[in-house]
């Protein structure tokens, strides 16, 4: 993905990332809706759902269906991703790194919809879900392991 891609055209890339994860996971009958929220809306949603009064980067909700279909909603906050990257989270202040983080969040949320979880705290990035997430991000960005 080009580092200069404009934010307005990110939505198709994020939707593609979610579709690819579903395909790689072998999920055929699924629908995962992605919604981009500004910081205020994401903070309010986080408070309403988790009771936490802070900004978060991604929230995901699975909606189990009696027939086994996978339905889910993933909410992503580009402002939180920008803040994470700018504060030294991943990479530098480079715009491409923000886009990479947004793709990571789409993958992360999609995996949560599929039932994957990770522990809170330091073990988070060593969890099977996190390793799977990073493998998919590398594939989406066409990077070697």
Number of helices: 5
Spatial gap, N to C terminus:
17 Å
* CATH fold title: Collagenase (Catalytic Domain)
Tell me the structural class.
alpha+beta
What's this, in brief?
The protein has helices at residues 10-24, 39-50, 78-86, 95-113, 128-141; strands at 30-36, 58-62, 70-76.
Walk me through what this model shows.
This protein has 145 residues and is of the alpha+beta class. The protein is 48% helix and 13% strand. It has 5 helices and 3 strands, in the order H-E-H-E-E-H-H-H. The protein has helices spanning 10-24, 39-50, 78-86, 95-113, 128-141, and strands spanning 30-36, 58-62, 70-76. Strands 1-3-2 form a 3-stranded mixed β-sheet, with helices on one face. Helix 3 packs across helix 4. The two termini are 17 Å apart. Residues 1-6 have low confidence and may be disordered.
State the main characteristics:
145 residues, alpha+beta, Collagenase (Catalytic Domain), 3 strands, 13% strand, globular, disordered N terminus
């Amino acid at each position: 993905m080009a580092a200069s891609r404009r934010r307005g055209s990110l939505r198709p890339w994020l939707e593609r990332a979610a579709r690819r994860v579903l395909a790689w996971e072998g999920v055929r009958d699924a629908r995962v809706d992605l919604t981009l929220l500004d910081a205020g809306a994401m903070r309010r949603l986080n408070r309403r759902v988790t009771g936490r009064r802070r900004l978060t980067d991604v929230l995901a909700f699975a909606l189990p269906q009696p027939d086994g279909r996978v339905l889910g909603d993933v909410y992503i906050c580009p402002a939180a991703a920008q803040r994470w990257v700018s504060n030294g989270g991943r990479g530098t202040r480079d715009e491409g790194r923000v886009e990479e983080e947004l793709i990571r969040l789409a993958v992360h949320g999609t995996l949560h919809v599929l039932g994957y979880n990770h522990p809170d705290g330091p073990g988070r990035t060593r969890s099977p879900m996190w390793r799977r997430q990073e493998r998919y991000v590398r594939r989406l960005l066409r990077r070697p392991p």
